[in-house]
Amino acid sequence: MFTVIGLMLGGMCIGFLLRKSRFTWIHNVITALIWILLFLLGVEVGGNRQIIEGLATIGLEAFVITLAAILGSCICAWALWYLLYKRKGGRA
């Protein structure tokens, strides 16, 4: 845990020191690293027998949580829109 926090703080410090430099290529590097991490995560999950055997249950739970999160986000976004624009007589 301390290693992860130390690496994050170290990266923040280096970023702060180099903030005036232009790193136009860094977006491509970050994207490639994210794709590699996702691939390795898939390899790890695919190699875990317990996860593969319980995939139907895990998938159903993930689907329900996803639907609840989307519904909650839509309701909150609508409520905020209503409070900011409709209630005060503003134009949407």
UniProtKB/TrEMBL annotation:
GO terms for molecular function: L-lysine efflux transmembrane transporter activity. Keywords: Membrane, Transmembrane, Transmembrane helix. The chain crosses the membrane at residues 25-43, 63-84. It comes from the Bacteria. InterPro entries: LysO. Pfam families: Lys_export. This is DUF340 domain-containing protein. It comes from Phocaeicola salanitronis (strain DSM 18170 / JCM 13657 / CCUG 60908 / BL78).
